[in-house]
Amino acid sequence: MKFILAPDKYKGSLTGREFCETVALGIKKVFPNAEIVNRPLADGGDGTIDVVAHYLNASKVSVMVKDPLFREITAQYLLSEDKQTAFIEMSEASGYKLLKKSEMNCMNTTSLGTGEMIADALEKGVKNIVLGIGGSATNDGGMGMATALGYSFLDADGNELEPIGRNLVNVSEINQDNVNPKLFGTKIQVACDVNNPFYGENGAAKIYGAQKGASDQDIEYLDEGLKNFAKVLKSTFDVDVQNIAGAGAAGGVGGGAVVFLNAELASGVDLVMELANFDEVLEGANWVITGEGQLDGQTFSGKTINGVVQCSKKQNVPIAAFCGSVDVTIDEMQRMGLDYTVSILNQIGNLDDAKAKTAENLELASYNFAHLLKLSKD
């Protein structure tokens, strides 16, 4: 039998690779000659950089950039072995993880450092860039990122503006005279798993501004700024970012990337599965086994398991999900397309106890599943 193991991590207890190793132990106790293909995945969020490093056989590149408050820091991105592909995580340069709670205010933060990482990769001659935009501390519409790549933003008097959220409302003109020419020969894909518009009730500022330190008054101001910025983008580039699903991701970097980088917005898990050649390894598989820490309603929207299901169903390969906990109804499970779902928890206890026994419980769940398959075959 051929099994494809394609999990996300169990946050705080097992990496995707450890999940694969553990499940393989359980299966091999029943099917010692089984073909097992490990394809740990991620959805563009926390930990994606380590998964991608595996598939690109990539090395980490360090570069000096500006953090969200313009301070010099060292950030890292991945460069593939053939030097043709870079994987950049916005959070490494422009993430909230770089700020103290008291420093969080997306009126004053910039995505400049993200653009500096992109510029460094362009100078190294890459032809493909995958940009993950989770965990940002910014709401600048991608203005900072674009500034690092040669765009400049002017007010009504022709003065150059600092690329922060507060100044979106003042942008009157965008100068493109010094844009990095290497941008236009590079394919850029953005891992984007939300559908928020640029501005409005479901836009970048109103949905995410509060968690990035903006007050109610700030949020209204930022939303007006994004609306003004969208108008200038339309008159300059003839692109209406408000009509692009996901334009509001990462404080408007989703829309900014489409306009300034000529980027394509794509599902994070789809991009990782593409790097993992997932379609190819599925051929001839009897089962796909996936998993994550918790299976719940959020799994429907852009999460790893959902991506695995969509891909596997196209080739009619059944899917089993081994999860730390399961919080969905039978109807929801059926709608998701899962053929077998189990919580690996075996005892009542606290979260720390559960995490400590994750590997033991997962191996047992894998063994039981494989044994059930063997009985059904006999």
Radius of gyration equals: 22 Å
- Terminal CA distance: 14 Å
Briefly, what CATH class of the largest domain?
Alpha Beta
| Order of adjacent strands in the largest pleated sheet | 3-4-5-6-9-10
Mean pLDDT: 93
For the secondary structure, the number of strands is: 15
Global structural class: alpha/beta
Q: Give the H and E element order.
A: EHEHEEEHHEHEEEHHHEHHEEHEEHEHH
How would you characterize the largest beta sheet?
A: 6 strands, mixed
Could you list some keywords that capture this structure?
378 residues, alpha/beta, Glycerate kinase, domain 2, 6-stranded mixed β-sheet, elongated
In short:
This protein is an alpha/beta fold.
Describe this entry's structure for a reader.
Keywords: Kinase, Transferase. With 378 residues, the protein is of the alpha/beta class. It has 2 domains: 2-41 and 278-376, 3-Layer(aba) Sandwich (Rossmann fold); 48-266, Glycerate kinase, domain 2, CATH 3.90.1510.10. The chain is 37% helix and 17% strand. It contains 14 helices and 15 strands. It has helices at 16-28, 48-56, 91-94, 112-123, 143-148, 204-208, 216-237, 249-260, 268-275, 278-282, 304-314, 330-336, 351-356, 358-377; strands at 2-5, 35-38, 59-66, 72-79, 85-89, 128-132, 152-154, 173-175, 187-191, 264-266, 287-290, 294-295, 319-323, 325-326, 340-343. It starts with a strand and ends with a helix. The model has no long low-confidence stretch (mean pLDDT 93).
